[in-house]
Fold:
Amino acid sequence: MRAGLRALAFGDIEAGSWGAAWMPDPGGSGSLAVHAAAGAAVTSAALRGSDPGEEWRLRGDSASLVLTPAGAPGSSGAEGSGMEGFDQLCRVTGRLLIDGVEQGVDCLGWREVRTGALDLDRIGSFRQVSAWFEPGEGLALLALRPRKSKGQESDLLAATVLDPEMTGAVADPRLSTTYTADGLPARAGLELWLGKEDAEPADDESARYPRRAAGEAVGAGIDWTVAGFELHARLLRWHAHSQDGAGVYMLGKRR
Structure:
């Protein structure tokens, strides 16, 4: 599989450890933002792996992680949109090293590959949202906003419901965000309408009701810069289907 834009996130709210990476370089070099009990750090890192059936390995000065598939990949992005690709839950294991303090990692996470002909030069900002719930359910959404666009009505969206019992695509993904006075995400809501766009309710029961989730920020976020984008990532506590989970909200704005 051709490795285009790749992204990943992982986190354990109880342990207080989490991290995120956004890697547009096909070669796999980039930066990893991590947070643990000892504090936060942004480190250069190299990512190896892009296929859904294999382990991915992430190595950096502050981290050594293995991302093992924890479910089937979910396709997202309409054909011809440039956003084609997949999202997948993964089990993340390894270690973080921040300020000389080592902390083990063993939690759920999420990973993504965009295989379409995505032209980042035309993108002014993006919102990348992921959520995971034990033992193996999750949600993911990517919203790209073209340059000079002022409202979300022009956003390009791709979303996936990661559920062993779910069949069908996300026909109508919706993301709402409440921001702080500094313009950082504080709360988020997902509403993902399933099924084909032309599905009749009688033919596709999943198209009648959306998957919904709500999340709120936990603790401080991390800021860093990649490929001309100023990034901000923050750990969220998510709620869906009477379940509590974790996830990461990543916000990118062109410098």
